[in-house]
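Consider the tokenized backbone below.
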């Protein structure tokens, strides 16, 4: 079949590799101008290792492990008050997000057609196929369309439901960026919390730099869609009066070139497919960053969908039903983990 995938992060390229292996003609469209080189470290757990092995990239992914040794729990004054084991944040294997994205792209680039700097803006389908319009490219028709384009999925918005109906905010938002290693962390993290506010810092690959997350209780995922200046203003407002290293980190935030803002949200839908269109990964069932399962869930979702298509003689209706029936219990469990994680951060 001729299949279009929207999104070139993790779920999209992984699914593209499996579909190409099974004989399909695959195109991946991505809004970014090139493979994304931003984002925190991501971790892998449980069955995700089997998917990495089947993709043939497990050894290469392991070569980029952050090697975290644990996280120090700090009191309000920044003094060490306890410790969390490495797997709390790093899972069984933790790797910088940009390395995973790069590896998946390089692994599929010769077999899959990638179209960067473009996005879907129209989807019309009937029994014979899916007619897709793009912001830049000419319209084209596909047998199937897959939305693997994240929590603010264009495919989901066009075919399933507006963001306001699909996204559930978990009461936690924050910024991420990198800065100087103020604490001298060495393959280690530090977590500082007061009611409704938290700072997590870790340093791994570069001893001179540390990754920072400034989180705070919030009431709307709409913060994600504001411009950077407004997001910075809100972050300063919510963290005003916080002690320890927070004032210095707020200064660093404004100077950061890798600033990003995100909220702890989940995606809940009654179904993950509609006709010839199907969702995979965060686009269909985001469990929230607080679950620690997003990347593993994306890989497992891609593998499950590809296997369902291969096992149904490419009968997409049967395959989509099998995919959802098999995966939904796993997603439900991960989403509960995500909600509990948000509660632990005081949201």
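A designed sequence for it:
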């Amino acid at each position: 079949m001729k299949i279009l995938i929207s999104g070139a992060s993790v779920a999209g390229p992984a699914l593209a590799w499996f579909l190409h292996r099974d004989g399909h003609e695959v195109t991946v469209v991505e809004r970014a101008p090139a493979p994304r080189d931003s984002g925190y470290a991501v971790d892998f757990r449980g069955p995700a290792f089997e998917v990495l092995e089947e993709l043939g990239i497990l050894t290469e992914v392991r070569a980029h492990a952050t090697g975290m040794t644990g996280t120090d729990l700090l009191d309000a004054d920044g003094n060490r008050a306890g410790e969390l084991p490495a797997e709390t944040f790093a899972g069984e294997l933790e790797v910088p997000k940009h390395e995973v994205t790069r590896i998946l792209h390089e692994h599929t680039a010769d077999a899959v057609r990638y179209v960067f700097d473009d996005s879907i803006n129209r989807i019309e389908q009937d029994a014979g196929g899916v007619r897709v319009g793009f912001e830049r490219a000419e319209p084209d028709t596909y047998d199937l369309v897959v939305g693997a384009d994240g929590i603010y999925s264009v495919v989901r918005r066009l075919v399933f439901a507006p963001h306001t109906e699909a996204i559930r905010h978990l009461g936690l938002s924050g910024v991420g960026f990198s800065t100087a290693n103020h604490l001298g962390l060495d393959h280690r993290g530090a977590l500082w919390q007061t009611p409704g506010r938290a700072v997590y810092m870790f340093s791994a690959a570069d001893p001179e730099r540390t990754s920072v997350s400034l989180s705070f209780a919030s009431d709307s995922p709409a913060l994600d869609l504001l411009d950077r200046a407004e997001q910075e203003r809100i972050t300063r407002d919510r963290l005003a009066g916080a002690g320890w290293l927070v004032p210095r980190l707020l200064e660093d935030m404004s100077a950061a070139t890798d600033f990003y803002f995100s909220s702890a949200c989940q995606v809940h839908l009654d179904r993950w497919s509609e006709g010839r269109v199907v969702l995979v990964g965060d686009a269909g069932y985001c469990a929230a960053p607080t679950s620690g399962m997003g990347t593993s869930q994306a890989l497992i979702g891609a593998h499950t969908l590809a296997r369902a298509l291969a096992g149904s003689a490419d009968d997409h209706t049967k395959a989509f039903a099998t995919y959802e029936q098999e995966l939904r219990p796993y997603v439900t469990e991960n989403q509960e983990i995500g909600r509990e994680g948000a509660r632990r951060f005081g949201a």
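The chain has a mean pLDDT of 94.
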